[in-house]
Specification:
Blueprint (H helix, E strand, L loop, with lengths): L1 H29 L10 E6 L6 E5 L2 H11 L5 E2 L8 E10 L15 E10 L4 E6 L2 E6 L2 H10 L5
Antiparallel strand pairs: 1-2, 1-4, 3-7, 4-5, 5-6, 6-7
Amino acid sequence: MKKVYIVFVLALSTAIFLFGCSSKEKEIKKDVNLGFNQATKVEVSSANHPEVVANTIDKKQDINTFINKLKVDKWTAADLPDNAKKENVYKMYQEGTVKLGESSNKSKKELQQVATVTTYKGIPYVSVEIKKLNLSLKVPNDVSEYLSSQSLEKQ
């Protein structure tokens, strides 16, 4: 009888544990945002001339608008088509993290590049590079059109 009781308790505990893990996975999936909302500056350049900055987004309100129009929660992982031609490169910067033992010097706001988003001509795909992690993602058509228009704004 003890063996049956112990097996029952173990099975019940395992089921509760697995159910808890699956609900956390759903919560995590809802909160995926690639960290773009931490950006304090975005530089837009052409893939053909990445050293020439065509547009800079650095006002807090403009950055928030930019991030919201990306609709990152609607992006899905997908393989890039073979005929994909790079169009624009978006470099996202944020202030460096103050590490343990360092003083937080407010006057010295050094920006570090944290992500790069590359768009492609005529197709709703992007490549995202964050800390040597490269992702190919399919984006909604309106997001692709919005990203294509950003390089034209300040030329």
